[in-house]
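Table 4 source record.
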Amino acid sequence: MKDEIKDRMFSIPNILSLIRILLVPVFIVLILNKKIFEGFLVFLIASATDALDGFIARAFHQKTRLGQFLDPAADKLLMNASYIVLSISSLRYSNVIPIWLTGCVFVRDILIVSVSFYLYSITNKKYVSVSIPGKLTTICQTAVLLLVLFFNWKEITPSILMWFYYLTLILTIFSGINYTVKGFQLYKRRTR
């Protein structure tokens, strides 16, 4: 039964990941059309599917090979698309994510994906697991997006937002370095 679930393509977690992917263009269109409240709701729904798919996969033993790639791909797509669209200053929102933070988030994700794919290509196994700095970074990056969306909806610009940008930048850099070091350590162990 477990092998059947592992090979099943359309498990509930995979469907939730696909929904998250499909919500990304909806979110972008809403933000570009200045429908900030609706965009905020879509982002909340997409974020909820992320938490829900992981819970269901673990609790009901619905982990699949496809899900190992689909879930992180959906996460990266949602995160990067959100950062990019909320960095567009010409939209004239009250709060715009600084381009240096968006660039850092994007570069970190490219680095992690590249290291992961390289390790997978030489070992045929997924080795780089989620770390505590990685989880903290994801929480902080998501919090920045939620705060920017919320404050834009309320049309306020609190000074505390800049501190969240700096904290997110520091965590993003640290976790990127952490994942890269772990990846190289795994590679060295594998090639011994």
